[in-house]
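Q: I'm building a small set of examples for a reading group on sequence design. Run inverse folding on the following structure and report the sequence directly after it, with nothing in between.
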C-alpha cells in the first residue's frame, strides 16, 4: 500500500491490472479485518453517480478478486475474502500488509525515542524503507481513498521528522544538513523541518546560515500566507542570536538496554508429561523459526477446557525453545479464570525487576512501564509465557517489542483482538497417550491384554489432570485397584465423586462462577442431556427461543464448557465432555436440593 499497490505471493506478482479492481482491493485492505459496506464501495467507485447495475458490478469485481492467488476459493469461515451481511471483508494478518508494519514500527519508535534514540533511528529507517512512492500511486482515488492517502502521507512525514529528531539527539548534525535542505525545499512551510535545519546548521558552527533559513521562511510565510512564524520558531531564532548555551547539547548516549541479568523463570517440566507430539512440533517451529525483522512479535495461544494440559504443554515447548532467546524467559500467571485477574501494571513491574531494573527506577503508570519494557526488549529477544490470560487488554501491555521475541499464551476462554496469533485448540489426549500417562503416574507397567487402564482413562475423559489425580491416588496399588475403580465409576455414573477429581471440580467451578445467570441455568440443564446433542434438543429442554439458546451456547463455548462440532449443520451439534457433564449434573442436583425438588440420583 505504501506506493503503487502490490499483491505478491513470494516472488509472484498478483496485482490486478484493472483500475476498478485495484480500487476495490485498496478499500478492502485499508479496512483489513473489518466490514466494508456495499454503499461505501459504491460511493468510492462511482463518486456519487452510480449506475443502476452498481451492486451487480461490485459483485463481479469481488468475484474477480477471488480469482487472485491469495483469495482463491476462500469465501468461508476462516477465509480471506468474505461475504458478510451488508458488505465484504478481507482477512489478512497485520504483518502481511506493509502499511500495518509501518504503523507498528512508528509506534515502537515513539515509545523508545527518549530512552534509546539510536534504536529509534534504526527502527524509523526500517519503517521508511517500506515506502516505494506516494500512497496508492496507481489507484484512482475517490473521496475515502483520498482521505486515507492524505492521512498516510502525514504519518510518513511524522516518521521522517522523528528520524531527524533522533539523529539530532545522536549528534549527526553535519550529515543532516543536505537532507533537511531537500525537505524544506519540498515542504516550504513545514516549521518542524525548518527548525531542525536551523539546529543542524547551528550545531555545525554555521550560525549565519541557520538564521538565513529563518529569514527566508519568515518572508515566504508573510508573502504567501500573511502569517508570522510560530512562537517556538521565533524563540529558537532569538536563542541563536543570543548564543544560548542550551542549544549546544552534547549527543545523547544510547540508553543501556542490556539486562543486568537474563531472567530464567520457566518452571520445571512435569516428569509424567506424555504425548502432544504434533503440538510440540508445531510450537517448536513457530517459536524458533527465524522471523522477518519487520514482522510482529510471534504469538502462540493454547486454548482448551480446564485440565486439558495447556500449561504443561506451554512449559514443555518453552523449555525446548529457550536457547533461542538470549534475553531470557519471563513467566506470569495472569489468573484470568479467577474472580481477580492480575493487573498488567503489576506484572510489568515484576518483569522489569527480573531484568535488573531497581524498583525505584520502575515508573508508576502502566503506560510508562510498558514503554520501558518495550525499550528493554527491543534489544533483548525474550520468551514470555502468559498463563491463564483473561483478555486481550490484559495481554497487550505485556508484549515485547522485538520480532525475534515470542509469546506463549494459555487461556480457557476465547481471546479476541490479538492479531497475528496462532491458536492451538488442545483436545484431550489420544487414548494411547492417556493410558501411558495413567500407567506412568501410577508407576506401573501395563499388562498385555489388561483393558482396565484404558477403561479408567476413558472414564477420566482422557483429560491429563484427571488422569494424574486418579493415577497419583492409585500409585503402587497394583492393577486390581484400576479395575475396581473403573467398575465403580461405570456403575455409579457420578464420575467426579467416584474419581475424587477435586481439582477438576474446582477448576470447572471457576468457569461456572464466571457465567451469567442465564449461562449457569443453561449449563445445569445440559447435564440432563446426552454428551452429544443438537440445538433443537436443548431448545425442547429449556423451553426457550432458538436465539436465546444459541446465545447461551455461545457463552458456554467461550468458557470451554462446551464444544461446537465443525460443519455446516442446519441444527448445530454440541459436545460436552463427560467430566464437565458430571459437574453440570452436580450443579443441577445442588440447585434442585436448594429448591426442595427431587434429585436425579
Amino acid at each position: 500500500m505504501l506506493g503503487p499497490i502490490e499483491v505478491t505471493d513470494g516472488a509472484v506478482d498478483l496485482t490486478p491490472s484493472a483500475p476498478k479492481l485495484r480500487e476495490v482491493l485498496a478499500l478492502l485492505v485499508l479496512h483489513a479485518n473489518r466490514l466494508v459496506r456495499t454503499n461505501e464501495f459504491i460511493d468510492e467507485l462511482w463518486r456519487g453517480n452510480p449506475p443502476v447495475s452498481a451492486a451487480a458490478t461490485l459483485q463481479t469485481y469481488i468475484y474477480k478478486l477471488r480469482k487472485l492467488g491469495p483469495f482463491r476459493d476462500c469465501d468461508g469461515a476462516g477465509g480471506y475474502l468474505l461475504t458478510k451481511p451488508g458488505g465484504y471483508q478481507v482477512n489478512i494478518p497485520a504483518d502481511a500488509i506493509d502499511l500495518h508494519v509501518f504503523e507498528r514500527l512508528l509506534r515502537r519508535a515513539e515509545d523508545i525515542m527518549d530512552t534509546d534514540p539510536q534504536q529509534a533511528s534504526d527502527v524509523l529507517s526500517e519503517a521508511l524503507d517500506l515506502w516505494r512512492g506516494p500512497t496508492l500511486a496507481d489507484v484512482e482515488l475517490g473521496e475515502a481513498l483520498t482521505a486515507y492517502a492524505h492521512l498516510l502521507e502525514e504519518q510518513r512525514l511524522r516518521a521522517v521528522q522523528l528520524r531527524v529528531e533522533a539523529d539530532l539527539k545522536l549528534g549527526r548534525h553535519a550529515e543532516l544538513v543536505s537532507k533537511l535542505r531537500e525537505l524544506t525545499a519540498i515542504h516550504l512551510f513545514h516549521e518542524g523541518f525548518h527548525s531542525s535545519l536551523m539546529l543542524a546548521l547551528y550545531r555545525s558552527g554555521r550560525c549565519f546560515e541557520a538564521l538565513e533559513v529563518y529569514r527566508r521562511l519568515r518572508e515566504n510565510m508573510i508573502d504567501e500566507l500573511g502569517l508570522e512564524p510560530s512562537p517556538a520558531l521565533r524563540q529558537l531564532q532569538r536563542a541563536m542570536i543570543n548564543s544560548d548555551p542550551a542549544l549546544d547539547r552534547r549527543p545523547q548516549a544510547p540508553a543501556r538496554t542490556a539486562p543486568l541479568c537474563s531472567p530464567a523463570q520457566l518452571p520445571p517440566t512435569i516428569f509424567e508429561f506424555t504425548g502432544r507430539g504434533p503440538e510440540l512440533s508445531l510450537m517448536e517451529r513457530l517459536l524458533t523459526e527465524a522471523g522477518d525483522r519487520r514482522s510482529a512479535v510471534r504469538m502462540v495461544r493454547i486454548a482448551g477446557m480446564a485440565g486439558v494440559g495447556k500449561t504443561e504443554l506451554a512449559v514443555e515447548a518453552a523449555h525446548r525453545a529457550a536457547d533461542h532467546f538470549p534475553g531470557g524467559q519471563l513467566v506470569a500467571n495472569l489468573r484470568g479464570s479467577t474472580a481477580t485477574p492480575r493487573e498488567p501494571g503489576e506484572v510489568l513491574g515484576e518483569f522489569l525487576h527480573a531484568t535488573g531494573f531497581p524498583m525505584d527506577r520502575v515508573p508508576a503508570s502502566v503506560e510508562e512501564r510498558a514503554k520501558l519494557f518495550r525499550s528493554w526488549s527491543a534489544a533483548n529477544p525474550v520468551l514470555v509465557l502468559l498463563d491463564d490470560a483473561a483478555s486481550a487488554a490484559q495481554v497487550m501491555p505485556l508484549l515485547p517489542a522485538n520480532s525475534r521475541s515470542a509469546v506463549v499464551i494459555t487461556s480457557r476462554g476465547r481471546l479476541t483482538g490479538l492479531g497475528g496469533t496462532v491458536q492451538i485448540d488442545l483436545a484431550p489426549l489420544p487414548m494411547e497417550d492417556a493410558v501411558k500417562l495413567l500407567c506412568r503416574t501410577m508407576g506401573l507397567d501395563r499388562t498385555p491384554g489388561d483393558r482396565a487402564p484404558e477403561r479408567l482413562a476413558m472414564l477420566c475423559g482422557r483429560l491429563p489432570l484427571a488422569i494424574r489425580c486418579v493415577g497419583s491416588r492409585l500409585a503402587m496399588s497394583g492393577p486390581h485397584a484400576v479395575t475396581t475403580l473403573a467398575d465403580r465409576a461405570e456403575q455409579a455414573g457420578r464420575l467426579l465423586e467416584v474419581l475424587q477429581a477435586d481439582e477438576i471440580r474446582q477448576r470447572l467451578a471457576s468457569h461456572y462462577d464466571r457465567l451469567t445467570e442465564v449461562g449457569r441455568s443453561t449449563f445445569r440443564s445440559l447435564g440432563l442431556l446426552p454428551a452429544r446433542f443438537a440445538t433443537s434438543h436443548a431448545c425442547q429442554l429449556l423451553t426457550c427461543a432458538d436465539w436465546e439458546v444459541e446465545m447461551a451456547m455461545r457463552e458456554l463455548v467461550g468458557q470451554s464448557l462446551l464444544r461446537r462440532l465443525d460443519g455446516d449443520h442446519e441444527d448445530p451439534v454440541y459436545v460436552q465432555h463427560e467430566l464437565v457433564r458430571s459437574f453440570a449434573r452436580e450443579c443441577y442436583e445442588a440447585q434442585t436440593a436448594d429448591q426442595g425438588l427431587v434429585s436425579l440420583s
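Residues 270 and 312 are 7 Å apart (CA to CA).
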